[in-house]
Amino acid sequence: MPRLAKRTEHVMPFYAVELFKQASALHAQGHDIISLGIGEPDFTAPPQIVETMHRAAQAGLSGYTPPAGISPLRSAIADYYQQQFGATVDPSRVIVTSGASGALLMASMALINPGDEILMPDPSYPANQNFITGAGGIPRLIPCSPEERFQLSAATVREHWGPNTRGVLIASPSNPTGTTIAREDLKALIAEVKRHDGFVIMDEIYLGLYYDGVPQSALTLDDNLVIINSFSKYFHMTGWRLGWLIVPPHMVQAIEKLAASLAICAPALAQHAALTCFDPEVMQIYEKRRLSFKQRRDYLLPEFERLDLLVPVVPDGAFYIYADIRAHSQDSDDFSHRLLYEAGVAAVPGRDFGPAHASYSMRFSYATGLDRLQEAVDRIERFLG
């Protein structure tokens, strides 16, 4: 048999997917499983978007597009950033990608050389490490405390920047914690990275799902960041595999060259359909759905407190609660397993997101209906006894 590349030994497993497989198997056996595990909205694309996709298919618009995406969609994304997040973006800097994963792949390939070290917070989304590893880089997780909102800061970057450090990969709001980086803290962090002549890759996938105030893109602080975003979370188009990059002007040509080889283009029909996302009546649908997520968060937080599931930092975005389970267990793997098989509730153990808080932390997703969340709370309460 052919020998596998050594990088495959360093690829991080995604335990949330394994949990999803177990939950699906139990469901197939007839068990009623409430999933608070996978980070996928229970909402799907509004009917107007589906109709636009059908019209595009009937018009024969399913062929290759330019590697950077169709011009109307790049302009629409730039306008969206201006109107919703206060950031002025030239459409030429927008690269439409095959999901945020495609965006992270190309950003990593464009910026990371073999041996480069990239700083990330612990906890953080596990798959991001694999894009760094795939480009030959070394992801370095920095333990971040509740006092730091589980986020990197200028001080931690200063302390941990080494001779091989090349940049940082951060997210605001974050998966798994749902926390954002305060504006002044983010400004200081970016300045610290620039002082070392490094780069900032900023994951803004959950920026639209923000609940406490008016969200602003990191681009309003610095125009030379690499921004990752997606139609999966706020726009509820997970399987359509559509995302985007916003890059500094000097990176555009290199990213387009990579896109032409690594992806050819993002899915054509999804691109044409996504134009309808920005219609005013469709944006109103998304706003109502955002408020539904907020309602779910606001229901769960006091319930978790009542059940002694400590939430060290109130999430102000995304659709996750990162909870401390030490009142009930010191082993999140065992707790997650028992919760699934004894209570029929799926939630992700902490080891998916880094070792610092793994043994006593779990991620609970509230990307499911309020009635199911209420039933999940009842089951957890009975389970805790």
From TrEMBL:
Q: What organism is this sequence from?
A: Pollutimonas harenae
Q: Which Pfam families match?
A: Aminotran_1_2
For this entry, list what GO says about its biological process.
amino acid metabolic process
Residues annotated as domain Aminotransferase class I/classII large: 32-380
Keyword set, alphabetical order: Aminotransferase, Pyridoxal phosphate, Transferase
Full protein name? Pyridoxal phosphate-dependent aminotransferase
Molecular functions (GO terms): pyridoxal phosphate binding; transaminase activity
CDD domains hit by this protein = AAT_like
Q: Does the keyword Transport apply?
A: no
The record's annotation in PANTHER family points to: AMINOTRANSFERASE, ASPARTATE AMINOTRANSFERASE
Highest rank taxon of the organism: Bacteria
Write down the required cofactor(s). pyridoxal 5'-phosphate
> Per the record's keyword annotation, is Transferase included, yes or no?
yes
What family is this protein classified in?
Belongs to the class-I pyridoxal-phosphate-dependent aminotransferase family.
